[in-house]
Amino acid sequence: MTATAGVPQAVLSAAPGTAPGERLRQLHLSKVLVVGVVLVALLLLVLYPFGWVVYNSLHEDTTQAWSLSNYLNLFADKDLYLPMLNSVLLATAVGIVSVLLGVPAAWLVGRTDMPGRRTVRTLTLAAFVTPSFVGATAWILLGAPNSGWLNHAWRWVAGAEQPLFNIYSMAGTVFVSAIYTVPFTFTIVGSALDSMAVELEDAATTLGSGTWHTMSHVTLPLVMPAILAGFILSFIQGITLFGVPAFLLAPGGTQVVTTRLAELYQQFPPQLYLAAAYCMPLLLLTAALFLLRRRVLGRRRFTVISGKGRAGRTVPLKGWRWPAFAAAMFVPVTAILLPYTALLIVSLSKAWGRGPSLDNLTLDWYAKVLVGNVETRTAVINSFTYAIAGATLCVALGVVVAYLVERRSVKFTSLYASLATMPMVIPGIVLSVGFFAAFTRPPFKLYGTSWILIAAFCAAFLPIAFAQCSALLKGISPDLERVARSLGASEVHTFRAITAPLMRSGLVAAWLLVFIPIIRELSVAVFLITPKTNVMTTLIYNAKDGGDYEALCAMSVLLILSTLVLIAIAQLVGSRPRRSTLSTEARR
Amino acid sequence: MSRIRIQNLGKVYGQQAALAGIDLNIADGALLALLGPSGCGKSTTLQLLAGFEEPTSGEIWADDQLLSSPRGIVSPERRGVSLVFQNYAVWPHKTVAENVAFGLKLQKLGTAEFKKRLDEALGTVQLTALRDRYPAELSGGQQQRVALARALAVRPRILLLDEPLSNLDANLREEMRFEIRRVHDMLGITTVLVTHDQADALSTADQVAVMNRGRIEQVGSPQDLFARPANAFVAKFIGSNNELRGVHLGGGCVRVEGREFRGHLDHVLDVGAPASLCIRPSRITFGATVPADEGNRVQGRVVRASYLGEYSDVLVDVGAQQTMRVNVDPRIAVAVGEEVTLHFPVEQCQVLPVGAAA
Predict the structure, then answer these.
(1) ipTM
(2) Residue of A nearest to B143 (CA)
(3) Cross-chain residue pair A7–B80, CB shorter than 8 Å
(4) What pTM value is reported for the model?
(5) CB A110 within 8 A of CB A194
(6) Residues paired with A265 in a beta bridge
(7) Among 3.20.20.140, 3.90.1170.20, 1.10.3720.10, 1.10.10.10, what is the CATH number of A33-60+364-588?
């Protein structure tokens, strides 16, 4: 019999005996188009710039000929290998300090009855949103040997001749880098503590183990992988950081890899090919560290043993509650409260050297930044335009790639996944080098346009978008999509009608997670901007030597403030009351 | 409302054959259950029927239309095959009515026809009153009805039910069995039900295909399977039979570890071929009731005994790493470690081939 009226009639001939060998599979034009666009975008954003970096690194700057001399120079030239050693030193110190600060704070917040736990958590996480080079700017105001306020205060209180400390030093650089890296160790270890099954600790307690014994023998070993992962992430941060060493270390003549790279670009004549080769050791190291981190987390599955969602047992601190609070406030005070105060006061001062007083109060700098000065006004507008465009493109690309990979909708899914993840191991400044190399020549002459920045931002944060969207899709049972297919919807229609709406609130979060790092990103943009395409971060970077601190601070405050406002808006949108939960979990 | 023909259907994942070339005919309007333990290939068969996977070998036909072959498949949306999943897969962002209407909208019906079909589908599963609810506000059984209505609204040629009862509690489960049967009898849609639960299969289906390790062991009516299992696997899976594995000596006589047992032989079975003696736990006679002069007896030691009210479930170690499960009169006291004699009445024993894939 034939199908009843209304049944989706198969396109194939229903005549008796479909000829064997006849093609049964139909090519869906819209799907082919989508997959094609995605593949081209991935190749252009990730592989193409990287290819040019490799190509350039194998050429001599002066003769333009093929040569290995750049690589040989890396280990022969003192001006090239010393910065590498400095970078490793800086990164190691940053890793250690951020573990020492972040792990106890995470424990105090997650596992004790310390007062003000929410405050500490919120303020520590606020350090995430603060660009570290803005923090560095603020710490120049606070800790410069002569003019820094804290040193002023020290000399006044102690009557000393010498400053308390000098922020323009390796120690100062480590300190500022570390306080803005603490959020990594804090959240990683914090979530490991949160997700750990209470039963594991309870089991030890019932066996007669005391609080401290349980902490040291059960809890700590269980979160050890998280601590290690936090250290590795902090190390990577420390070695790829550009802003902080550029602000605090370079003025004293000490170079790290990232600042030396900038020098190679900005000197005359620039040595672009040498710079390309100089990226390689950095790239290899970060790639190796990411692999190491994956192994650390992958091998020890028990890090994610989860309980029934009950809160962990709280350790009573008794008389140590307030001292513990004071200690836990170290990062919030040094990374948020002091710097923000300094930035705010200076940005509202006619001249910051005159110190805070009422007659020194002015809003002129904000007016100048936003209205009066064309340069700054353009940068503000550019920052937002690029961040909105970049985040939107990035999430759009991420969601489609994640869908293709998660649902195995195409062949060679691992190729798509690796391309979308690869930028994670590429330090921002290397990406900047790559995009400069790739898009200043035909056939893609984008240098000087907004597109080179939007594309670079999109590439830099594609791994975040991809990972977020993959996680979202993992939470949506493929059966929900299969049902739609069986009812007559094509794959593209199913994605639009079922998958995308179910991802909606998660996509808002993903967009935000891309938008925030873009608007505070400096190193990706540093070689790609032109006076017309300046963004807030690069403007602050370029203005640091001018001594125009009041305008600089006004700009910084605006940058932070606008980010916070956007987060608030997005959270309101994202947490719109949801009528339902995703009742079905992924099955396969 | 289509006849399904499956010929030599095979599916290989990497090195592993999930489906080893099965043949199956499902009559127009029949309700067939695919029954088997997990990993037997029943879900793979379903995925192939729905068009989500491409077979490695073989063909699937619906009436005279080729749906799947290794050369390609008719995509899921063009097959006229509807699905109901174990986890319901009801879209949480759509109301009951929106869920059910999804497939109808794609059929581009006139407004009147659309409304009629929607109301009809909701009425069929008695959900009219809940049409504007969201799935989160429904019980598991109600969600399952939504899934059923959604699948039926498009008037599919074939309806596939993937473990539709597994997530429901015992009472609801019984109710949904009747519901599935009722709706099937009402609409007459060719239906394939996948389940690992023999009670679901026996109580709901016209025909049951027992699967094991990617093969079909037997297809038949529930009565057939229970009374005349094709082999020891089916006997164990359907009737929770005890199995003693040995060698056929001819005429229904089986040698197991040096001991000989007799039973009914309904099959053609070569002398010297591997064979199993199967008997249900309730048919074994135990202890004092064993007649002294007959054969088919075995000595053993009680390793476990649990009192279940209606009877006691006793596990007896009969040596050679074989244990037998016996249902014993609950008034008889059985002690663990006790030496007992078991008797397998000849008329209750079946001598069966071991099973294709065992």
Answers:
(1) 0.80
(2) A583
(3) yes
(4) 0.79
(5) yes
(6) none
(7) 1.10.3720.10
